[in-house]
Amino acid sequence: MVLKYTLAWIPMVFIGIVNGAIRQFGYGRFLGELFAHQVSSVIGIILFGSYVWILSIRWPLESSRQALAIGVIWLGLTVAFEFLFGHYVAKHPWTRLLHDYNILEGRLWSLVLISITIAPYVIYRIGS
Q1: By the 8 A CB rule, do 67 and 61 touch?
Q2: pTM attached to this predicted model
Q3: What is the pLDDT of residues 52-73, one digit of tens each?
Q4: Which residue from 20, 39, 56, 69 has the fewest beta carbons nearer than 10 Å?
Q5: Per-domain residue ranges for the chain?
Q6: Which residues contact 127 (CB under 8 A, 6 or more apart)?
Q7: Is residue 81 a contact partner of residue 13, using CB atoms and an 8 Å limit?
Q8: Do 73 and 9 touch, CB atoms closer than 8 A?
Q9: Is 29 exposed, middle or buried (CB count within 10 Å of its CB: 0-12, 13-18, 19+)?
């Protein structure tokens, strides 16, 4: 089951890309950069949560330990992808990549990462 859920992380990349594209080419043009980032973060949390809920229907989680392990794996994959792709492919400087982690400046990316990490556990607990 953990392998299935690990592979199920891959569509999350596309969910994030689509969410970012909608922000960039849609409402982001009408909102300030920070507010657009915040709106996008909340939308991302909702989208990722919905996706995990759908996965849990298809592949019910077997234990809270398994759910926590999946969340930690997803966190590691997400952070690794963000920094490796963001720096080496998209050519963003490290300072720009780290900028979204500054919650004191209103950046909410850390909350998205927390939600990705705990979503399998929360959904498992709701369903059990």
Answers
A1: yes
A2: 0.91
A3: 999 999 999 999 999 999 999 9
A4: 20
A5: 2-127
A6: 56, 60, 61
A7: yes
A8: yes
A9: exposed
